[in-house]
Structure formats: structure tokens, C-alpha cells
Design brief:
This protein has 176 residues and is α+β, with helices and mostly antiparallel strands. It has one domain: Sandwich (Jelly Rolls). Helices cover 16% and strands 41% of the residues. The protein contains four helices and twelve strands, in the order H-E-E-H-E-E-E-E-E-E-E-E-H-E-H-E. The chain has helices spanning 6-12, 44-47, 128-135, 154-163, and strands at 29-33, 36-42, 52-59, 65-69, 73-80, 82-87, 90-95, 99-102, 108-112, 116-124, 137-138, 166-172. Strands 8-5-10-3-2-1-11 form a seven-stranded antiparallel β-sheet. The chain has a three-stranded antiparallel β-sheet with strand order 7-6-9, with no helix packed on it. The chain is globular, with a radius of gyration of 17 Å. The relative contact order is 0.22.
Length: 176
């Protein structure tokens, strides 16, 4: 995290207010998660529990299982490439510059539908970072991981989901 001079914030940050967050390109906590690189840019500890923000870089075909968040809303902002997002029965093709909001308790999933995509994924309130940290592997380099040799063992995924207020409803991919 970029340092912010404490003397500067003492005169501009009201008592009890959260300190500013300033991360540059490539900064953050890096994980290999569901076939892509996830960089946590802000988590609940940083935001007083208000939100989690991640930057994702993933190859074609990677995405999430069909799931529901019971504790947070989720949104996507596509920076590069294209996602196909299925939310509440609607399929949305989301090229760079697109924004898609998935309210809590509404089923959704997504896949990367371009060769590679880079996007922001945010949840409000915070907490989703715990799911990432539980299932992700700290990335030794800030690059997309090698392709997995086998599908993931779903037992730990289901347990981590339950522990973090998510419900897995089906496999990755856009429902027919």
C-alpha cells in the first residue's frame, strides 16, 4: 500500500474517520483464485467493513460457479476484454467499459468470454475477501496461474462458501 503521511492526514481526516487508501498499479494482495489472478485492493479492515474491491485478470473460460451472496451485493466493471454474466435469468455480454450489478440473494455467475479479461469486482458490504483468502493460493507472481490439471475439489469450495454467506447453486458456466 502506498504510504500516506500521517501528519498530512491528521489535519484532514476527522476523528474516527477511516484513513485514505492509495494503491498503485500492481499493488495489493495477490491470489490465484478460480483460474485467474485476484488482487485485493481494499478489504473490510481497510474500509470499516463497508466494501471489498478486487482487480481480476483471468483467461477465457474462467469464472465462477452459479452462486448467491447472502451478505453482500456484487458488481463488475470490465476494464479490458469481455465477460458474459448471467444474473437473475438474464445473460449480459459485458465488453470493456461495462458495469453489471448483482444484488444480494440473486443467483448469478460469469465467464471470461474473450481471450483474457481484466475487471474490477466489488462487494458491499465487505467479507468476500475471506472467501478469496480461504480458497485462493497466494500468488508467487502477479500473473494468471497455470491452467489447473484437474477440476477443483468441491467439498472445500462448498464449505468455504457456507462459512462466508455464499450458496453454490451449480457449476461454472452460463445456464442454458
Amino acid at each position: 500500500m502506498s504510504s500516506i503521511n500521517a501528519a498530512d492526514t491528521a489535519t484532514t481526516t476527522p476523528d474516527g474517520a477511516l484513513p485514505p487508501i492509495a494503491l498503485g498499479p500492481g499493488e495489493g494482495e495477490h491470489f490465484w483464485f478460480f483460474g485467474g489472478l485476484t488482487t485485493i485492493k481494499a478489504d473490510g479492515a481497510d474500509t470499516g467493513g463497508r466494501m471489498t474491491l478486487t482487480e481480476q485478470t483471468a483467461p477465457r473460460g474462467s469464472g465462477s460457479p452459479l452462486h448467491v451472496h447472502h451478505n453482500e451485493d456484487e458488481w463488475f466493471y470490465v476494464l479490458e476484454g469481455e465477460l458474459t454474466i448471467w444474473v437473475a435469468g438474464q445473460t449480459v455480454v459485458a465488453p470493456a467499459g461495462s458495469f453489471v450489478f448483482g444484488p444480494r440473494d440473486v443467483p448469478h455467475t460469469f465467464i471470461v468470454s474473450s481471450d483474457e479479461a481484466r475487471f474490477l469486482l466489488a462487494t458491499q458490504a465487505a467479507g468476500f475477501e475471506g472467501f478469496i483468502r480461504t480458497l485462493g493460493t497466494p500468488a508467487p507472481v502477479a500473473k494468471i496461474p497455470p491452467a489447473p490439471a484437474a477440476p477443483p475439489d468441491m467439498a472445500p469450495v462448498l464449505q468455504a462458501a457456507a462459512d462466508h454467506g455464499l450458496e453454490i447453486l451449480g457449476p461454472p458456466g452460463i445456464p442454458a
